[in-house]
Amino acid sequence: MRLLFLGTGGAQPTKTRGLSCICIERNGEIIMFDAGEAAQVAYLKMGLGWNKPMRICITHLHGDHCTGLLGLLQTMSMQNRTKPLEIFGPAGLEEFVLTNIRILNFRPTFTISVSPISPGVIFENGEYEIHASHADHSITAFSYVLQERDKVGRFDVDKAAALGVPRGSLWGNLQNGSAVYTDHGIVYPEQVLGPSKPGKRIGISGDTAPSPELNKFFEGCDYLVFDATFLDRDYQRAVDTRHSTATQAATLAKASGVKNLVLTHFSSRYKDSSRHLTEAQKIHPSVIAAEDLLELTLV
Amino acid sequence: MRLLFLGTGGAQPTKTRGLSCICIERNGEIIMFDAGEAAQVAYLKMGLGWNKPMRICITHLHGDHCTGLLGLLQTMSMQNRTKPLEIFGPAGLEEFVLTNIRILNFRPTFTISVSPISPGVIFENGEYEIHASHADHSITAFSYVLQERDKVGRFDVDKAAALGVPRGSLWGNLQNGSAVYTDHGIVYPEQVLGPSKPGKRIGISGDTAPSPELNKFFEGCDYLVFDATFLDRDYQRAVDTRHSTATQAATLAKASGVKNLVLTHFSSRYKDSSRHLTEAQKIHPSVIAAEDLLELTLV
Fold first, then answer.
1. Do both B116 and B89 map to the same domain?
2. Which of A14, A67, A105 has the CB atom closest to B67's CB atom?
3. Does the N-terminal or the C-terminal CB of chain A have fewer CB atoms within 10 Å?
4. ipTM of the complex
């Protein structure tokens, strides 16, 4: 699994930071969180491919988090994308997408579905779930967690043979977690499977102030990408605009038992993110500051 | 006067070319032609300033020519722009701007007017006129000409004194082109003014196939920035999509007596624009291929 940072600037782009866009790439699929302006340019630079299985989760309807959808959808069409694309986000997102497709005269070559979400599980398949929670921002906003399902342990064929399970569909049943009946009695999955590998839990805050709800929502994340728009000295601005300081991000991450914290959405008023990092590292032991085009490979 | 190329790619951005955006800067004012995605990033890189007197002319409602308006307007608001902004373009542009301002929850700090245009003079002041013409594209599209007024020649104070024109308001009248009556008889402007300097004429094609109408419209341009999406070998694609080849751009420029031709809107299928340049230079003696962030200072 890779965690990819396509845009790490807050509100306004700078010469070195684009607007919010983060992707999780896993098993050849892309799950994108927000699509700020020029997301397609970073997407292109990172070589992610226009016809990948893909889902897009939008945190809120501020321009710096969603206007990049338009160019992304248009370029995918020009690249003859055929795979359907699911987009999730707050009410109003569907109007944004459909109205602009009409006004801008473009014809998607693929099916686009836009689903308004509420807190809870918004998508699940055999491999992972995506959860949403209310964030605390100046307009309706959501945070997301991608929770992978635990990976089944290695199937021990010798043990299975020794226990008298014949090669065939029963092996699959055991691998899928079901006990099977053989001529020699019942065999349970744990008798033939190695230790399972816990699925990764990745949190994406979007724009938000810290909140008790998010504290709970992000509990136990392996990686949490959190709003760190401001430094301590601009704390009051963070409060007023419903964003977070790097210190607040680290405090929440620590309280939630987050293993690794990634700061993002830096205000364009700061020259760089070194001070955000310093302030957060005083509180949490594992913090990095995201930069555009940063790739983290999670093993 | 400076001619600034903020984005020179056609339809899709590449790693080195952004989407259509060209600015004329004159006397501290910006006249922008199209605002493709990420126009604000190039605008920032070129250091043009968020509170300049400004007009924006949109050629047509394809996303690669106008979605950048949204981020531009939003960032200007965050930069507390106060000066009004006039936007001109095809019918539908007003809906695009106003609908997105509503959906994206942003509050402009300045007055935005959006005026639907038809061919003819769409704006004029004491210094220049902006003319529009129908272009020949797959949807309603316009081309533009910025025509500066001729600059009055140098006022010769010695000659004025010798002719008995007293210092004062009569000097202004002569400079503005009016004859004045003095105690010694009538004095005509040409008696006291040096040769006038012809205003520059700059053409911007937007996306278009060549047409007799544009041939006439761009007559005598000092600089013409023209659609050169394709090479000769993709001539049929140019015809089918209502774009131009570099050869067609040069042929039109030559027939229109254009002094200097600037090719732009290169398709992302080509590695670079060197062949466009070669093909156009076979026909027109003064051609350059625009690159992102290119500045031309016109004297």
1. yes
2. A67
3. C
4. 0.89
